[in-house]
Design goal:
Blueprint lengths: L17 H17 L9 H11 L3 H10 L15 E13 L2 E11 L3 E9 L4 H5 L4 E8 L4 E9 L3 E9 L9 E9 L4 E8 L1
Antiparallel strand pairs: 1-2, 2-3, 3-6, 4-7, 5-6, 7-8
Length: 197
């Protein structure tokens, strides 16, 4: 999904707070480095204490700290340009009655697009209304790759997702491995389930 360009909500900016805003940026960077880019989330009693001490609403502070978990969402998008060809992969993994497959990869001049299909045997009414899983994709290989889920869709027994990989993957499959990690919930928490294709 393409993100709309950001427009500041107001034209007003008080120059007297510029140095404070820069200090906030410096502190966010320091927080990121100290936590090794794994910030976690302050316990409820800390949020409550800081809310009272600094006169903020608790939900406001929850919102502020939630953003530290989602920095990756704001990474600039790389749009596929210059289609080259589709490469058949036909790789799969099976767990119970769920069949995961990567049928092909679309090669572009600037990126690769990995297609993941998930097919499930019998789907009960109860399962249809339960939270369903999403999958984070990573590439293990000699090169460092940026992977972004571009969305997906499907029906009760079939789901498909597209992932944009930058730089483009090599045609030689022995040079990398595609790894999918299950994530759930509004904050994309990883589960214990992972598979490679």
């Amino acid at each position: 999904m393409k993100r709309l360009p950001f427009e500041p909500p107001t034209d007003h900016y008080d120059q007297k707070i510029e140095q404070i805003d820069e200090k906030i940026c410096k502190l966010i960077k320091q927080r990121k480095e100290l936590s090794n880019n794994n910030p976690g989330f302050p316990h409820k009693h800390l949020i409550s204490s800081w809310s009272a001490k600094y006169h903020f609403y608790e939900d406001f502070l929850n919102g502020v700290f939630s953003h530290f978990l989602n920095e990756e969402l704001y990474k600039p998008f790389v749009e596929p340009k210059g289609f080259v060809k589709n490469i058949p992969i036909l790789g799969s993994f099976e767990k119970g009655d769920v069949f995961y497959s990567v049928p092909f990869i679309s090669q572009f001049e600037n990126v690769s697009v990995v297609h993941l299909s998930i097919d499930k045997g019998q789907v009960s009414e109860e399962e249809m209304h339960r939270d369903h899983s999403f999958y984070k994709m990573s590439i293990v290989g000699e090169t460092e790759y940026d992977c972004r889920n571009e969305g997906g869709g499907g029906s009760s027994g079939h789901m498909s997702y597209r992932y944009i990989v930058s730089p483009p993957l090599p045609e030689d499959r022995s040079k990398y491995k595609i790894v999918f990690t299950e994530i759930k919930g509004p904050f994309n928490k990883e589960t214990d389930f992972e598979f490679a294709i």
